[in-house]
Write a structure and sequence with these properties.
heterodimer; A: alpha+beta; 8-stranded antiparallel beta sheet; 18 helices; globular; B: mainly beta; 4-stranded antiparallel beta sheet; 13 strands
Chain lengths: 532, 158
């Protein structure tokens, strides 16, 4: 039973894109007003259009807009917001942001700043986990002294103890930034310098630590919710093993192949770490599961995850909605407690793929641009979270995620069939996306068999060859389309004109379009609906 | 009826050459692989060519369709002109839109083929531009922090 009235009156969402849209939807469902913020690149974006109010932050670069703590907090105060939801990325894991909001007398929808400081720092989080008997991946518990040339021998000795190959990782970061793989001791000094420099530029903190590379490994994370009274529950786990360059590609819930006992054990480990760290609101504890089935604690993300939707589908819980109630000081809802009780014995399966504006034939190079056609899948068991539609621009300044396609079905095989169907319905023109790659993965035997070990996808995927398979068919379709246009012309009465010998009178030999906007609009209408 | 030559707009390579009237009538493709055909947002720069965007299996093809006989004629006409211009300066252009994050060379520098010239960042990823050949940097047209569009000339090498 939810208490009467919404948790807040007006909420500012300090984010953009699909996650801002997702949070605005939660606000509207709870009867709260949503305030969007935007950079000049996003002035006409969907999250701005959907919100009840919108505040301009500044020019497109994130440092001038979505990372401006001062401007965002001022905007919230000026417009009378009671709470700020940070989404993911940008300022979501900056303790300084949470603290600025707390100091301004507003509510940060997430863990308190002190908890972000403790659990959000990977090195500190590992120490907290170890203090309650949850072992991490073998590695250093202290940041490495990269700036001390006299310590090189000590660092190398430490690395030998951990064992090669190992990873240099940024204490403050994620997404593979600041990360370096080191196969031999000789490579270590260079990797430390490079990793630290990259971490400093990406996160403003050059601290790095060492960690053994666990391979093959599965990447499994546990969704946590906690109230201000200290009750913390696990809502279920997600498997995010399918990654490319440490960016997650496909996420599913529950993790395939775990027994109920293993699931309970994993959830208990996550809750234990969260309790030790004093977690409130929502967070995710990440683990690696090695080939022997042992879970190694990795880190805690003290925010909403990109892939929270698959847990929502399986648990039936609105995680963003719960975040608002928890931020307002309510105890864990009945629904959340019930979901936690069912978490080890899930009754359905959900899978998410991330569609990104990247070219899978050109080594996943980012490709911003304007969307010419945008048809997202629908129908039974399909959920799409996006902040884009036809005519929108994907700006080069931000993350290249364009949509999250999620499916929900009774079990994993049915979910894979549904995902295949959903991806086949998806039509995007104007920009190249990772859709061909996702269609490939969902059809791959290894994926269906549940082989999710990190990086198999990179080995199996040959982008240029996949693209080449369709080139002839594409050329054929283009030729048919132009030929049909010529036929229209010969019959008379279209807005197109022929150039060259056609002017002489007989059937036009040289097809060409006079690019009048009306002609284009009319053709788009006609050809879009009835593709060759 | 008419033989068409279809080229890829990114590299002007011939994708296929065919006469659509000789094609069998279109057979239904499986779901997800039915072509979406649209006029390209950017018209062709070449007179007589039609720019077409085709999406099939999620792959986006930027194509130009032209009468094959006309294409041959034009090719013959331009071949000699092109041969003459091959010894001139080489322009290194932006292959993605984004922001210049570092510039490693300046005018007058001698560069080797494959040497790093500058880096452009887009969508959190850094993309290095390298010299396509050895030579001397004649001009650097990009500065750190500058936003560049696809195809902008950034460095000229002679």
């Amino acid at each position: 039973m939810s208490p009467p009235g919404p948790p807040f009156g007006r909420v500012l969402i300090a984010n953009r894109g699909e996650i801002a849209v997702r949070i605005i939807r939660a606000c509207h469902e709870l009867g709260m007003e949503a305030v969007a913020v935007y950079s000049d690149a996003d002035a006409g974006a969907m999250h701005v259009r959907m919100a009840d109010h919108a505040v301009r932050l500044g020019p497109p670069p994130p440092a001038d807009s979505y990372l401006r703590i001062d401007v965002i907090v001022e905007a919230a105060l000026a417009i009378g917001a009671d709470a700020i939801h940070p989404g993911y990325g940008f300022l979501s894991e900056r303790a300084a942001f949470a603290r600025a909001i707390e100091t301004a007398g507003l509510v940060f929808v997430g863990p308190p700043s002190a908890v972000i400081e403790a659990l959000g720092d990977k090195v500190r989080a590992r120490a907290i986990a170890r203090s309650v008997g949850v072992e991490g991946v073998p590695g250093t518990l202290e940041p490495v002294a990269v700036d001390r040339p006299d310590q090189v021998a000590v660092i190398v000795a430490e690395a030998e103890r951990i064992g090669f190959p190992l990873l240099v990782k940024a204490a403050a970061g994620g997404g593979g930034r600041g990360m370096r793989r080191v196969a031999r001791a000789a490579e270590l000094p260079a990797a430390l310098a490079a990793g630290s420099a990259e971490a400093l530029s990406a996160f403003g903190d050059g601290s790095v630590f060492l960690e053994r590379e666990v391979r093959p490994a599965r990447h499994i994370e546990v969704q946590l919710l906690g109230d201000t009274m200290g009750t913390i529950v696990a809502i279920g786990e997600r498997d995010c093993s399918s990654q490319r360059r440490h960016q997650k590609l496909i996420e599913e819930a529950p993790a395939p192949g775990l027994t109920i006992a293993e699931r309970r054990h994993l959830h208990e480990l996550a809750v234990r770490v969260a309790v030790a760290g004093g977690l409130q609101n929502a967070a995710t504890a990440e683990f690696l599961r090695d080939a022997d089935g042992v879970f190694h604690f990795l880190e805690v993300n003290t925010r909403l995850q990109v892939e929270h939707g698959v847990t929502e589908l399986v648990s039936g819980l609105d995680i963003v909605g719960e975040q608002f109630w928890l931020a307002a000081g309510q105890p864990l809802s009945k629904a959340a407690r019930a979901a936690a009780e069912r978490a080890a014995e899930p009754a359905s399966h959900a899978i998410e793929v991330r569609l990104a504006a990247e070219d899978p034939a050109r080594d996943f190079a980012p490709g911003p641009g304007r969307i010419g056609r945008w048809v997202m899948p629908a129908g039974p068991g399909v959920r799409v979270d996006t902040g884009l539609e036809t005519g929108d621009r994907v700006p080069p300044d931000y993350d290249n995620l364009v949509a999250k396609v999620m499916v929900h079905a009774v079990d994993r095989p049915a979910a894979i069939d549904r995902l295949r169907r959903a991806l086949d319905e998806t039509e995007i023109a104007g920009i190249q996306t990772t859709l061909p790659f996702d269609r490939f993965v969902v059809r791959h035997e290894a994926f269906r068999a549940g082989d999710l070990s990190i990086e198999w996808v990179a080995e199996a995927w040959d982008g240029p060859a996949e693209q080449a398979r369709y080139a002839a068919a594409a050329g054929e379709a283009a030729a048919r389309w132009v030929a049909d246009g010529v036929a229209d012309e010969a019959a008379g009465g279209s807005a197109r004109a022929a150039v060259g010998p056609a002017a002489a009178g007989t059937a036009p030999a040289v097809p060409a379009i006079v690019e009048s906007p009306w002609a284009i609009a009319a053709r788009e209408d006609a050809t879009d609906r009835w593709p060759g | 009826m008419t033989r068409f030559r279809i080229t890829d707009r990114s590299d002007d390579a011939v994708v296929i050459e065919l006469d659509p009237s000789e094609l069998p009538s279109a057979t239904p493709a499986p779901p997800g692989e039915r072509p979406i055909v649209r006029p390209a947002a950017r018209p062709s720069a070449t007179r007589g060519r039609t720019a077409v965007e085709v999406v099939i299996g999620g792959w986006r093809f930027d194509l130009e369709v032209e009468d094959a006989r006309l294409a041959d004629l034009r090719q013959r006409a331009t071949a000699s002109a092109e041969a003459a211009s091959h010894h001139g300066p080489t322009e290194v252009r932006a292959i993605i839109p984004g922001r210049v994050v570092s510039v490693a060379v300046e005018a007058g520098d001698t560069v080797a083929a494959g040497q790093r010239l500058l880096a452009v960042e887009a969508m959190k990823m850094e993309n290095e531009l390298r010299s396509p050949r050895a030579g001397t940097v004649e001009r650097v047209a990009a500065a750190v922090g500058q936003t560049v569009e696809l195809g902008d000339a950034l460095v000229v090498i002679r």
